[in-house]
Amino acid sequence: KYLFTIWVRQSSTFFSPIDDSGNTLVSFTYPTKLRIGGRNSILQDHEILVESQSLNNLNWEQLILTLNPNKQYRYITVEAFFPNAIAPTAGHLLIDDCALIRIE
């Protein structure tokens, strides 16, 4: 069992192109979840270890998440994920100061 601490926030403006031409910019400012996963190779699907609530904060906020993996992993993945997989939205997260602490 582990604790994973991380600071997160969103910026008020974040635009990114959505096509190869770079001409179509989309605002990526919708609420977003943070997902932490584990895997043993880059080709392997990851096990989702924890998922935060939907985040939409312009100020830095520390998250303290409990990870309880089913097995040992070589790699940890940190990803921004849309809150509703049925209706995907464009969001982003800024992250800082991650730490993994073993508690058991």
Structure description:
With 104 residues, the protein is mainly β. 0% of the residues lie in helices and 47% in strands. It is built from no helices and eight strands. It has strands at 2-9, 15-17, 25-27, 33-39, 47-51, 61-67, 75-81, 94-102. The chain has a three-stranded antiparallel beta sheet with strand order 6-1-8, with no helix packed on it. Strand 2 and strand 3 (25-27) form a beta hairpin. The protein is globular, with a radius of gyration of 15 Å. The mean pLDDT is 90.
What is the gyration radius calculated from CA atoms? 15 Å
Order of adjacent strands in the largest pleated sheet = 6-1-8
The total of beta strands comes to 8
Q: Helical amount among residues, as a percent range?
A: under 10%
In DSSP terms (H or I, runs of 4 or more residues), the helix count works out at 0
Major beta sheet summary: 3 strands, antiparallel
Low-confidence stretches: none
Distance between the termini: 5 Å
Mean pLDDT: 90
Oligomer: single chain
- Morphology call: globular
Run of helices and strands = EEEEEEEE
* Percentage of β-strand residues: over 45%
Q: Which structural traits does this protein have?
A:
single chain; 104 residues; mainly beta; 47% strand
Give the arrangement of secondary structure elements.
Layout: E1 2-9, E2 15-17, E3 25-27, E4 33-39, E5 47-51, E6 61-67, E7 75-81, E8 94-102
Antiparallel strand pairs: 1-6, 1-8, 2-3, 4-5, 4-7
